[in-house]
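Notes to self after the Tuesday call (sharing in case useful).
The group wants a holo model before anyone commits to mutagenesis around the pocket. I volunteered. Ligand is flavin mononucleotide. Logging inputs and output together so the record is complete.
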Amino acid sequence: MKTRITELFGIKHPIIMSGMSWISVPKMVAAVSSAGGLGILATGPLDANQTRQAIREIRELTDKPFGINASLLFPGAADNARVALEEKVPVINFALGKGDWIVQMAHEYGGKVVATVTNYRHAKRAEEYGCDAVIATGNEAAAHGEAVTTFCLVPSLASGLNIPVIAAGGVADGRGLAGALALGAEGVAMGTRMMTTQESPLHENYKRLSLEKTVNDTLYSKRFDGLWCRVLDTEGARKAIKAGLNPIKLIQAIPNSRAIAQQLGLPFTKLFIGVLGSGWNNAKQLAYMANAFKLIRIATEDGDTKNGVLPVGQVTGLLNDIPTVREVIERTVEEAEKIIKELGEKVGS
Ligand SMILES: Cc1cc2nc3c(=O)[nH]c(=O)nc-3n(C[C@H](O)[C@H](O)[C@H](O)COP(=O)(O)O)c2cc1C
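Result:
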């Protein structure tokens, strides 16, 4: 299958694995890229040195193009993006911020830059300052989709932009890929589907749960990490959302921020004083993130379903097996090609 996205990235299939913190690790990225898609490394939980090591590890595992994701609102994300630029990573994907400086530096060595967006205004701005493509994340996606669903967001961006659009949120198989292409996308990004694969480091407890849950079994709230966020409906997620940032959670955020201080290479007290001085809104957002990071880590690594929280998309309800990433990619393309071919016969002509 050839689209403007396969041409832009130099890949075989128009399928991307989203950057997912704790999941999109080097071996996953390399597996996706080796199978003809584009794997994207998540740098959320990494410091600058770890990001550099992870990029080098990917290069040892595959000679195919790959990308890195930096969610610019996360602490240390800009430093991680700078490392990726120094390492001349072929595709830089940024989210939750303005990446004009990334565009400028990536284009100097021929790198491509993709903005993750949830609305037309941000997408247009990203196109204007030189992004090569956008990932349009709909409401049904894991983590930070916003109000508009993929079904409406993709055509609205495809008609208003000249750069190609990649659809994210709600895609798990060939039906999703064919549908996204019909809506005007030139490729898809899959998170939840890729997370439940054999190579994925996700704990077995959650792989099993992801298969049991239906499309209705997610929670969408601003009270988990301070942004609109979709997570799997579990006891742990309900508890976290009910508590929000109550006084106990606010106090818990102090020790939980130690991991962030470590990631930034800052003494903890310096971070603490700096955050307090940056105003209540910033302090609140960082407190939310510190607690959320811990809960996602204990879900993905320890498999704790009573206290952990796992971002997942509504497509969790469409999953019924744990294939390899290569199987996901190949059968998605085959199924989409079959659907596209048969659609004409189905509706008659
Ligand atoms: C466990 C998990 C962690 C994620 N972490 C990040 C992240 O660090 N940065 C980011 O931009 N998106 C993150 N996402 C969102 C994905 O990049 C992507 O937008 C989403 O998974 C697409 O929707 P889908 O799950 O329906 O395929 C995460 C998703 C999951 C499932």
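Two things stood out.
The first strand starts at residue 15 and ends at 17.
Residues 204-300 form one domain.
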